[in-house]
Specification:
The complex is a heterotetramer. By secondary structure, chain B is mainly alpha-helical. Chain B contains 13 helices and two strands. Chain C has two domains: about 350 residues, ABC transporter involved in vitamin B12 uptake, BtuC (Orthogonal Bundle); about 80 residues. The chains are: A alpha/beta, B mainly alpha, C mainly alpha, D alpha/beta.
Chain lengths: ~400, ~325, ~450, ~260
């Protein structure tokens, strides 16, 4: 009983007003619901950035960062809104999240914008979110799909691929990417033999593979995530001898691909945002106690880092002040910052310098918080993923 | 040659996967149907029971692997399966003892049981996530293939490939063995006969001296076996994740009802009806048509009845149609 | 304790929870009126949904697990009512889509008509097949080309046909109507089934409805969601920029941000309360009338009710449509509150089974009970999360940081939500099966 | 009044009613007896529209009523009670009675909201009528009791009472005496006789208690194995060899009853 009382007291203290040397950040992700298997790594990635900053002791004269986790449920907009309101009540200085575009839109419109709170999502890619009136408060580190579709189409055409089968995850990310790719590719004279959606969490993908392979095509474009059905489809296609060559957009790119499929996908191509960026490897090796290669884990690290660096640049934890600085710390010019160098970045900023967060994903923000930039083209040789070029 | 190609294409992409998936669904549906016929309610917690059994199997498999025990070319999970069945059976019998028995004594209406099973579903949902987290888990080891696609192409010289995975054969073999055993058990053993008598007419069965508690317990044990096996086979063939297993509840129910709730044979047929319809309705028949039809008739379109987005809707649509025109299912099941 | 005393007590308790949430920062309470009102608003919507389910289950004993589908249709109503029409889409293919749908409907109607006219036999079977197959291909040909044309128009932003451009409040009754229409079709076909079967059939039909919303982009933008739906209340940002409002807020001693967010939420709360009270009053009036008596008789004993001259089939259909319409109404309210339609977010655990927990915990058959259940369970649904985190803290108290048990428990805390709902449901079913406010 | 013509009702291979033909005189109280499993209740259920007949016809006052749904038959004045009491258990006795009359304006949703006045008037009249019926059945003291709490016999009375809420033409009583104590049974018997005399109800009564049958019934019909075995007065039936055979054939269970 005594323990219980003590714990209650402790909670009450934690929940109390932010002390002067502490800055709270909300971490709102779908810890339950359809993407519950991704969110632990995403949260860990973001919290890694926060811990790094706290440990450096350089944030605004030695402030520590406390993450406060809330469940967005991914699907329940009302519960997510309530959770976000609780974050506001707890006095957070910024919100990392949310994840799924649905709840992200709801929190953005109903909580973040009204309260003037900065929100950086690592994963919401819906093009629809670009049109939401956000007062410059909303940012995302996941790249927009529109440009990638064009890049991917160009790549395939240049390699002389005239027809592909296309499968996409039935979410705003997959659908958006599939749409932009199909439009671009067909505009260049290519043929998409079939465009078939696959759903998250439906385990059995025989119907999709059957449809894709009987429609045929020189390559299979898999606009999905390795651990959310995309991997299963690749596996089933290889197993059935339906496709040997694939093309992978960013959601699929990661060391999980060569690790899972080895030489089976030799000759395939893919692209992911990134300049010649060793940051990703650094991030993965720094990740402790979680899987740094998890989908969106690296974007999460960058998102949290962005918020904190912007605070330092602005010299304030007030969202309405530091929102102006998010783009400048994300983009050139400035000293490039790799994962693990956040402490250094804070020092430079404190001294009045400028930084360019490269981070784990080579984050680059354009017009109003959309991530963009260059793409790294990869190919698979001898069971290894190698960089072919940058464009 | 063209004809052979067409046959191979259909076998490879339609018949083999649909048969495997169908067998997994059938095992799940058998569990649902047994509960329905003997305990007289639709158990909404069945998907999570499958998940629970699989989680336990994964745990034990990991343990075995750490001890260096393996089954050679077969997945270690097979060795862990009996232990997992035992643990799942304990859980199910415990659930019955703590929850369902009370309502049985009160002779509550079936809907109350269904509601209680909803509660159990919620609780199990939390429980399995607490036990094994939320991540996808692959626990298949051993040899992956019996026939490899490329080997087959080289061997046969056909344009179309044929592949056969170990887990696919395993699913079928295990499913057939279990179903055979189940039918033998229900028809030949004393306990099985008393279960059938209990299912046909509870009051008469009680009068003739059958111990209802024993029947119920045996039922739960068998359900544990069916559910765990179904879950493990599914997980071996694909992967385990708690969210997916909850989603399995719906096609499983569809299978049980299409076949006729309460009828074991119906459950098996229902499983295959659902799996085959999902694949066939969304299948792109273009390639097969090109192989089989004279050139002049070659199709331009994909010859796809419905896009794959609707594959889940297909099984429900079949469910609804069957319910409307043949409410007791294809094989005569029980009505409430 | 009398029924009304109980009701007053429980609602008083509920009110206290909201007041503490708004005023006191202690334990799991956040001490923010904004949070309190956010929870309250969705609680009001949940209460309306629970009322709809109670109509079907409490009044007539219909086990409908397709609530999700009706709620989703309500959401769709907001899109097709309040969005401005996309004129390019209409000229590109909108009319072809409508024509396609009409052709599809004609095919089905024709089949039914033919089957009614002709005697059973081979001719009828062959004709059925012929009409269905022919109709299907005709429908697909017209419909698909229309859909392609519409979805090709600026797919990342529109790609749909838009709506009628009416005020968003009109969408609420439209949501009810859409749900009622669907319920009519479903009821006509599936209501003959008994309990378990009806449950599974409706569960399946709801999945089909959501699958359609998820994939028919010309209608709902599918997985790409519809953002920025119009609101019946002003935008906070506009209020913050209005000098008059800021001055008014200051006179209350509030800063503009707090004042504007509270203002908007109270606006919603008033609208929702008006709806809830109206539906509650109408339900109560119906309940305490010969109509309610007849419904209870049907629920108690269908056979006897039939023998006593009641047309049970028609009455079941009537109440199924009515309850579904209420759910559709609530679905439209919810989508308006969210400001967006996200078809992928409709999930049976949340939008069907949770509503059932509300009805059962509150007291099936009792309208006030359903409202109470809606409030309480929604409050729990939100608050179980901080409760779980608190519990995790208590359980891991004294363990070194990063200890695997502590990590495990903390990770699992989020899953307390479903677990708790299950426990609550089981406990109520076992120890208080008639709910907190039983039917009198 | 009712003519049943060569009626069959099969459940799978089991012929519950196997070519029964009978007619019931207007104004009579007809007893329907027979050993267990003779098909009496199934016959009732087919006549009352609960079950579709496999073949055969049912006529009422010269009109074919075969296969009409129960609520239509109710409208034609054909009412019934059940072998196992089918009370509306969560409703009070008075409500059980008040729900019976058809065409109450309060049964339309619109009126429950906007026609309260009319409903109130109707309810007053209904309530008075229900109280009258309760009085007649000597269970006035149970008016506000939940029907589910009644004893088996009281439930039977209540079911009989329901038939009195409207102007019935013919009432089918299924084992009205089962599980009812003797005193109560006599009360029921009196009520039936009185209704028959004063209101001109025609009754068809399934009953195993031969005393009761003897007391109230004029013609008696005996069924066995789904067929009509004999028709006549109770005395004639009792003397019928075939009838005795049929009862004996089913074992000794019913023997003492037929002899009693």
């Amino acid at each position: 009983m005594k323990k219980l009382l003590l714990a209650t007291a402790a909670t009450a203290l934690v929940a109390g007003a932010a002390s002067a040397d502490e800055v709270k950040l909300g971490v709102i992700l779908g810890f339950t619901g359809p993407i519950e298997s991704l969110t632990p790594d995403m949260a860990a990635g973001a919290e890694m950035a926060m811990a790094e900053v706290s440990a450096s002791g350089n944030l605004l004269g030695g402030m520590t960062v406390t993450p406060i986790r809330k469940d967005s449920t991914c699907v329940d907009a009302a519960a997510a809104t309530a959770a976000a309101e609780e974050l506001i009540a707890e006095g957070v200085a910024g919100i990392f999240g949310a994840d799924c575009s649905g709840v992200t839109g709801a929190i953005l419109q109903n909580v973040a914008v009204p309260n003037g709170m900065v929100m950086v999502s690592p994963s919401a890619t819906s093009p629809g979110l670009s049109t939401v009136e956000d007062n410059g408060l909303f940012f995302r580190t996941a790249p927009s799909d529109a440009r990638q579709g064009v890049v991917m189409a160009e790549l395939l055409k240049e390699q002389g691929v005239g027809s592909v089968a296309l499968t996409y995850i039935n979410s705003d990310y997959g659908k958006g990417l599939a749409d932009s790719f199909q439009a671009a590719y067909e505009g260049m004279g290519g043929t998409v033999t079939i465009s078939a959606a696959h759903d998250v969490g439906k385990g059995d993908y025989s119907a999709e593979v059957a449809a894709l392979s009987s429609a045929g095509g020189e390559r299979l474009v898999v606009a999905g995530y390795v651990d959310q059905g995309g991997g299963d489809i690749v596996r089933a296609s290889i197993d059935a001898g339906a496709f040997d060559l694939f093309h992978f957009p960013d959601g699929m790119i990661g060391d999980a691909l060569p690790a899972t499929f080895g030489a089976d996908i030799d000759g395939s191509y893919g692209q992911a945002p990134g300049s010649d960026n060793p940051g990703y490897q650094t991030f993965v090796s720094l990740a402790e106690g979680f899987n740094g290669e998890g989908t969106y884990a690296s974007e999460s690290y960058d998102a949290a880092a962005l918020i904190l660096l912007a605070m330092q640049a602005a010299g304030s934890t007030d969202p309405n002040v530091y929102k102006e600085y998010v783009e400048s710390v994300a983009n050139a010019p400035g000293e490039p910052i790799m994962p693990g160098e956040l402490g250094k970045a804070l020092e430079i900023l404190a001294a009045g310098g400028d930084v360019d967060l490269i981070g784990a994903t080579g984050v680059e923000l354009v017009n109003g918080g959309e991530a963009a930039g260059s793409y790294r083209v990869v190919t698979f040789e001898g069971g290894e993923m190698v960089t072919a070029e940058y464009r | 040659m063209d004809f052979l190609n067409a046959v191979v294409a259909i076998t490879n992409l339609l018949i083999i996967p649909a048969t495997t998936y169908g067998a997994q669904l059938a095992l799940g549906a058998l569990g649902v149907t047994l509960i329905y016929s003997i305990l007289r309610f639709s158990n909404f917690a069945h998907g999570d029971t499958m998940a629970f059994g699989t989680v336990v199997t994964i745990g034990i498999t990991t343990l075995f692997q750490s001890w260096g025990i393996s089954l050679g070319p077969l997945p270690t999970a097979l060795l862990a399966l009996p232990f997992a069945v035992a643990i799942t059976a304990v859980l199910l019998v415990g659930t019955d003892f703590a929850i369902y028995r009370f309502y049985r004594k009160k002779r509550a209406v079936p809907i109350i049981f269904v509601m209680a099973s909803l509660g159990v579903m919620f609780v199990m949902n939390g429980l399995i996530r607490f036990m094994a987290g939320v991540k996808d888990q692959t626990f298949d080891d051993g040899t992956r293939f019996i026939i490899k696609a490329r080997d087959f192409k080289n061997w046969s010289g056909l344009d179309e490939a044929l592949a056969l995975r170990t887990t696919q054969v395993l699913t079928l073999v295990v499913a057939i063995a279990i179903v055979a055993w189940l039918f033998w058990f229900l028809n030949k053993t004393r306990t099985g006969k008393s279960m059938r008598a209990f299912s046909d007419n509870e009051d008469l069965a009680l009068l003739s001296g059958i111990n209802p508690n024993r029947v119920v317990m045996v039922t739960w044990v068998i359900v544990a076996m069916l559910a765990t096996t179904a879950g493990v086979l599914y997980g071996l063939d694909k992967a385990y994740s708690p969210y997916t297993y909850f989603q399995l509840l719906l096609p499983t129910f569809a299978a049980a009802i299409v076949g006729g709730l309460g009828n074991p044979l119906g459950a098996i047929v229902g499983g295959f009806v659902v799996s085959f319809s999902e694949v066939m309705v969304t299948y792109v028949w273009k390639k097969v048509a090109i192989y089989l039809l004279p050139e002049a008739l070659e199709p331009n379109g994909l010859l796809q009845l419905m896009s794959t987005e609707y594959k889940f809707a297909v099984s429900f649509a079949i469910l609804v149609v069957v319910l409307l025109f043949k409410p007791t299912g294809l094989f005569k099941g029980q009505s409430v | 304790m009398t029924q009304s005393m109980r009701a007053i007590l429980f609602f008083g308790f509920m009110a206290a929870l909201f007041i503490i949430e708004g005023s006191t920062n202690f334990w799991i309470f956040s001490g923010s009126w904004n949070t309190s009102l956010v929870i309250l608003n969705m609680a009001l919507v949940s209460a309306v949904m629970a009322l709809g389910v109670n109509l079907q289950w409490g009044y007539a004993g219909l086990f409908n697990t397709g609530i999700m589908g009706f709620v989703a249709l309500g959401g769709l109503a907001v899109v097709v009512t309040s969005l401005p029409p996309v004129t390019e889409s209409w000229s590109a293919g909108g009319y072809r889509i409508i024509l396609g749908l009409v052709l599809g409907a004609l095919t089905i109607a024709g089949t039914i008509l033919m089957r009614m006219k002709l005697p059973q036999g081979r001719l009828r079977g062959v004709l059925t097949l012929a009409i269905l197959i022919g109709g299907f291909f005709l429908y697909r040909a017209v419909f698909d080309s229309g859909v392609q044309a519409v979805e090709a128009i600026d797919p990342s932003v529109t790609g749909n046909i838009g709506g009628l451009g009416l005020p968003v409040l009109v969408a609420w009754p439209v949501g009810g109507l859409l749900a009622a229409g669907a319920a009519w079709i479903i009821g006509k076909t599936a209501l003959g089934l008994r309990s378990d079967y009806l449950a599974i059939a409706t569960l399946g039909i709801a999945e089909i409805i959501v699958a359609i919303l998820k994939n028919e982009e010309w209608l709902s933008r599918g997985a790409k969601n519809v953002n920025g739906l119009p609101r019946p209340v002003p935008y906070e940002v506009d209020l913050q920029q209005s000098a008059e409002f800021v001055a008014n807020a200051a006179s209350f001693g509030l800063d503009p941000v707090t004042a504007s967010t509270l203002y908007v939420k109270i606006g919603y709360a008033l609208l929702f309360t008006a709806v809830l009270v109206t539906i509650l009053v109408l339900s109560q009036l119906a309940r305490h009338s010969p109509w309610g008596r007849m419904m209870r008789a049907i629920r108690d004993n269908e056979t006897a009710a039939r023998a006593m001259g009641k047309n049970v089939t028609r009455r079941h259909l009537e109440i199924f449509i009515l309850g579904s319409a209420v759910c559709g109404f609530a679905g439209a309210m919810m989508t308006t509150l969210d400001g967006q339609l996200t078809p992928a977010s409709y999930h049976p655990l949340r939008f069907t089974f949770l509503i059932w927990v509300m009805v059962i915990v509150g007291g099936s058959g009792n309208n006030l009970g359903s409202v109470l259940g809606g409030f309480l369970i929604w409050w729990l649904w939100v608050k179980v999360e901080p409760l779980g985190q608190w519990l995790a803290q208590v359980l891991t108290y004294g363990l070194p940081e990063g200890h695997w048990i502590a990590v495990r428990i903390t990770e699992a805390a989020a899953h307390m939500r479903l677990f708790t709902m299950g426990l609550v449901l089981l406990f109520v079913l076992r120890f208080n099966p008639r709910g907190m406010l039983p039917e009198n | 009044m009712i003519v049943v013509d060569n009626l069959h009702k099969h459940f799978g291979g089991f012929h519950a009613v196997d070519g029964a033909s009978l007619s019931i005189e207007k104004g009579s109280i007809t007893g329907l007896i027979g050993p267990n499993g003779a098909g009496k209740t199934t016959l009732f259920n087919v006549i009352a529209g609960v079950l579709e007949p496999t073949s055969g016809r049912v006529m009422m006052d010269g009109e074919d009523i075969t296969g009409l749904p129960p609520h239509d038959l109710f409208g034609k004045g054909l009412l019934r009670t059940f072998q196992i009491a089918h009370e509306f258990h969560s409703m009070t006795c008075r409500e059980n009675l008040m729900m019976v009359p058809a065409g109450q304006s309060g049964e339309t949703l619109w009126n429950t909201w906007f026609g309260r006045k009319r409903i109130a008037d109707e309810e007053r009249a209904l309530r008075a009528k229900a109280d009258e019926v309760l009085e007649f059945l000597t269970i006035s003291h149970l008016a506000d009791e939940k029907a589910g709490n009644l004893s088996g016999g009281q439930k039977k009375l209540l079911e009989l009472g329901r038939t009195m809420m409207v102007d019935a033409k013919i009432v089918f009583l299924d084992e009205v005496g089962a599980g009812v104590n003797r005193t109560l049974l006599m009360t029921i018997g009196d009520a039936i006789l009185q209704l028959n005399k004063e209101r001109g109800y025609t009754f068809v009564v399934i009953e195993h208690d031969m005393d009761f049958i003897g007391k109230i019934c004029g013609p008696v019909i005996c069924m066995a194995e789904g067929k009509v075995l004999a028709e006549g007065t109770l005395a004639e039936i009792k003397a019928n060899e075939q009838v005795i055979e049929a009862y004996l054939g089913t074992g000794l269970k019913n023997k003492d009853k037929v002899g009693a």
